[in-house]
Amino acid sequence: MGEISSKACIAVDVMGSDRGAGAIIAGVCQALKENKGDIKIIAVGDEGEIKENLRLHGFYKDSRIEIHHASQVIEMSEKPIQAMRSKKDSSMMRAIDLAKIGAADAILSCGNTGALMAAGTIKLRTMAGIERPALGAVIPRDGKNFILVDVGANPDPRPTNMLDNAILGANYARVAGIVEEGKMPKVGLLSNGTEDGKGNMLTQNAHILLNNSKNVVNYAGLIEGFQVFQGDCDVIICDGFTGNVLLKTLEGIMKMLKGMLKEELTSNILRKFGALLSMGAFQGVKNRLPVEKFSGAPLLGLNKLIVKGHGSSDKAQVAGALGIAIKCVRRRLNESIEKDLAKIQLEAEKKKAVESETRNENE
Asked: What Pfam families has UniProt attached to this entry (predicted)?
């Protein structure tokens, strides 16, 4: 799936992150430097702060950036529905409104996750055939990265939602370059064993559905936790509760190992000298695990794309999340998902027709 179009218009919630407008605008400017083609950014938030930060980075007169003023900010601690009702002129709500009316192709926000998912689902609605959206994340892995979905949108799904997750994740894998063009991503279902009958009732029923949908999903079967990083699946699906716990556990492990490594390498003069000699190797590992490039998680399954960035995202992470949004728009992610959903619907109608015909013959 190549880039079909160079055009992309992204509405960016400038005010909602922990770091404020400065980090978001810095990331926007970096992304504009890195991405070529017909790109438009609608910076949504306090007009004065946005202008000040654009001047700071030399982008004040850049024709690719439009400012849309919003007078309110949804704080991280606010309850989603209450925030939606009381802060209709917030940067987040206005960014979603711009996508709803067709002024933007996608939204990027590093703000309140609950408010973003609630407002996105209510205002933009799910695609036909999708009951609930799911958050997908690119997870770096030695050799080949993979997509983990769902990482927090739907903590208590039904088996049919898990099938949807497989379709959403597989399409995102194509767009994200996880698989070569023309190949079907390999999908695994996370469980506590690989044999039939393993897992809770959700996993067992989802396993049956996925096995019966192999014409649309390249289903590889159940996988265990150790296969997440040692296996070869392009997409790993699970419920939003498990996915969120797994994602945050991985982030915690990375921070712990980084801290331990730094502590040990600086404990004495000899180790400091050894660390200096090993700088090339450390840089090589960092290049193989470019976490900042995968710092955004698309909320898949809505009629317009929403990309959720970390609340504490720095300039590089904001640029990476914005890059994901641009790539998804350019490669027409939603259109690809709709085609797979149409296949599922067609198969369901054929099955229903055959069952009806069989009943009539028996009668």
From this structure: FA_synthesis (PF02504)
Q: What is the CA radius of gyration of the chain?
A: 22
- HSE-CB for 229 with a 13 A CA cutoff: 9
**pLDDT (mean) for 348-356:** 67
Using an 8 Å Cβ cutoff, are 56 and 351 in contact? no
With cut-offs at 50, 70 and 90, classify the pLDDT of residue 34: confident
Q: What pLDDT, on the 0 to 100 scale, is given for residue 358?
A: 66
Check whether 213 has a pLDDT greater than 90: no
What percent of the chain lies above the pLDDT cut of 90? 55
Higher pLDDT, 51 or 348: 51
Nearest 10 degrees: CA dihedral of 318, 319, 325, 330? 170
pLDDT at 38: 84
For strands 106-109 and 65-69, give the pairing. Answer: unpaired
The number of domains in the chain is 2
DSSP string, 184-248: PPEEEEE-S-SSTT-S-HHHHHHHHHHHTTTTTSEEEEEE-TTHHHHS--SEEE--HHHHHHHHH
Distance CA 16, CA 313 (A): 11
Q: Measured at the alpha carbon of residue 267, what is the angle toward residues 262 and 268, in degrees to the nearest 5?
A: 130
Where residue 43 sits, what CATH number does that domain have?
3.40.718.10
Judge residue 332's burial from the number of C-beta atoms within 10 Å of its C-beta, 0-12 exposed, 13-18 middle, 19 or more buried: middle
148 shares a domain with 82: no
pTM of the model: 0.85
Query: Residue 254 belongs to what domain range?
Result: 137-291+333-363
Q: Which amino acid would we find at residue 235?
A: V
Do β-strands 134-139 and 296-300 pair in parallel, antiparallel, or remain unpaired?
A: antiparallel
| 259 and 212 inside one domain | yes
* H/E stretch holding 106: strand 106-109
